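INTERNAL AUDIT FORM
Audit reference: QA-55
Scope: verify that the stored structure record matches its stored sequence.
Auditor: D.O.
Record contents follow.
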Amino acid sequence: MLTSLSTRWLAKRCRAGTSVKRTGTPYERTTHSSFSLFHAHFLSLCILKQNRERNFLLNCCSRILQMMASSVFFTSHSYTACATLLVYDLLLLFPTEINYVWLPRPTHPHLLLFALNRYSPLVDMALTINWLLHKSTPADCHRFYIIVSPFALTGIFISQVILMIRTYAIWDRRRAIFWCFIGIGIFCFIPTVICMAMELKTAQFVALPNHPDCLNVSPPYLLAVAFIFMLVIDTIIALLTLFKGVEHLRRSNHPFLTEFYASGMLFYICIFIISLANILVPMWAPDLIGFLSGFQRIFHSILCNRVMLLILKQRQRSPTEDPYTGDVGLSDTAQ
């Protein structure tokens, strides 16, 4: 603004000096001519400065666009890594699932939760990979976001419900634990759904040049709040499991109990790190708002599935074992 006003004033002065050049005494003509040359030189410097500022701003914008494109490219690769990890885990444990899940009791009602937790990530991962392979407009990106995000959130809730059932079992189905989980559903599940609905309604996407994907430019605060509620749910489940695990392991050193509770704590540590990253990373780098959301979904499914397979293995390996080993109810844990 200041530079523009200066250039206008100097141009006016130059025109004024030029108009006076034909009138007056020789001394006055020489003086006006000197001022005109000085003003013209200064004007050229101002224009040069303007061009430098313009080039600097253009370079900054170009670098910002490159950073945005690279962050979107990085995020797309993270979804590819998630899909690869999911397929690898499915192929690795498929024989175990056949032997311990589908052949012994294929009509057990809990197997519906197992199947949803295990195979539903394939659907949203397939949709995501297919979407990344095509050029999308901002409207297409928003439409895809509305379809896939609730699907992924439902899958995470299914994993958490399975862990709640497991925790409720190891606490001998106490009514206090039951009402604790009802409270979690009211004060954590519902606010998470509300935050996700608000995020889907207010999300905005922009297209990037020379890149098939779009960039989510909406503030990350609603998603951060949703991830905080998810982390609260996982933390409550982990604390209840830890308290009961300490009580059980003090009375028994059964290998199944050791592996069972160690797996549960390892599950929580992995989910805690991913959830914390999903909360903090978008605050520092908003371009990476969706970088770890796929990992949150996949790790919930994979780790929860491994805990369930551990329980089902114990049920098949020792069907005639005394359900109480060291006064610890293994039958409830393995149900």
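Auditor finding: record pair retrieved intact. Residues 89 and 302 are 7 Å apart (CA to CA).
Action required: none
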